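Could you join me in thinking about how sequence relates to backbone shape in a protein? To get us started, please write out a protein record for me. Would you write everything just below, so we can both look at the same thing?
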Amino acid sequence: MNDKSYRVLIVDDVETNLYVARNLMEPYKFQIDTVDNGSMAIELIESGITYDLIFMDHLMPNLDGLETTKILRKKGYQGTVIALTASNEGSNDKEFIGCGIDDFITKPINVQYLDTLLRKWLNGLDVVITQPLFEPSYELRSIFRKDAEKAIITLKKTIENNDMKPFKTTIHAMKSALINIGEEKKSNLADELETAARNGDKAFITANIDDFIKILEDLVANFTSYELEDDFLLDDTDLLIDELYFIKDACENYDEAAVYEAINRLNDMRLKKETRHKISKIRELLFYESDYESASKFCRDFLNQTQVYLNTLIITARLLPERIARMDRFLENNEIKSFAIEVHGLKSVLRIIGVYSLGSDAEELENKAMEISVDGGDFQPGSYPDFRASLLDLSEKLNRIIPELEENDEVVDIDMFIIALGEAKVAALEFDSIRALEILTSFNVFSYAGQIKPLLVETITTLTVFDCEKAVELIKKMEEAANE
């Protein structure tokens, strides 16, 4: 087994490609850095960081991968550089080697070939690759949406200015990005457009570019809709939790047959794609590594994540209308800093429950509002009406599924709750609102005597806007009520 933690740098101007490459290498437990241009890669090397491997995209705007590698070699960098290339560039490997490139791999990245390449250049890798370990997620589609929006603007501008160099670079980037989100047929048109740009075939570009831009615009529109049917499909939660407890106990008793029986039962249930991946991870830990301890710990962590996620959905459904009303009020009263703080807290909640695109929209609004609150001027709501409409749509859909999640009538274990309050208070005093939220949301499903439940909901709301000082005061009130 190798004890060395390898450090890897990935350089690519398309965030979608960076996301995919990082996820494909995650099983190797590398320390991975990513940058989106050659200049930043040079800066990292000049800062003294030593990388065991650099994956360098070939075609990037401004400073491409070959030029970047030439500069690094002239500066004396001797580390391994592997080019990330499009499928039709591999025949040009002499040019790569002449620039100081040591090897190359084509995009989209093939998992098995990546594994072969990593073992060629790095010693002692003990990861067993049995199947593709990554597939497009909601988060990846959200990242692609941003890449596609930028590409649409660039393509329209380059056509208007008859500027083929950025046109070719942008089309090249979209070609691999489309494959990474599972749109191989749409990627074929990008490949044809790139070839046309390389050959100076302006007639083909003129005849087909509008269709390609329309493809990107349709994908952007599709990924901007916040449908819950796929990404918010609820697991058969009660049965899932029961089976996870069963698997955990079976692992602790080294009962392999019982574990596989439970996994087979889980495979017959209605489960989210992400949940099925985690079930597969349990099977891999046992089947390939016979690691019962890690499998048991994985189950414990999974159980905790499931409870926190469900509780967060319940809280979000209850508080979203109130948060929308607060944002409306802040804008009406021109309280821009308060608006930015509210959006900031909402951004975190949206990402926790998996609505990554809407979380990104919240971040853009927050940044604009913070700029105005610091520099002065009039805040133009811009995208806020669309953002608000999407939040209302999200609230409606959450309320449709929330009956499946409603809290039970189980009374809280008051001693455990008091301990949890103490831990949450310490976290809030250290301004760790995320940790405090994780502790308290798991107690939101229980019934309480007196005023504890309203205080608990108010505390959770306060923490989502990162007001840790007020949260500490509320926790103290809950402690007093719980000790009565």
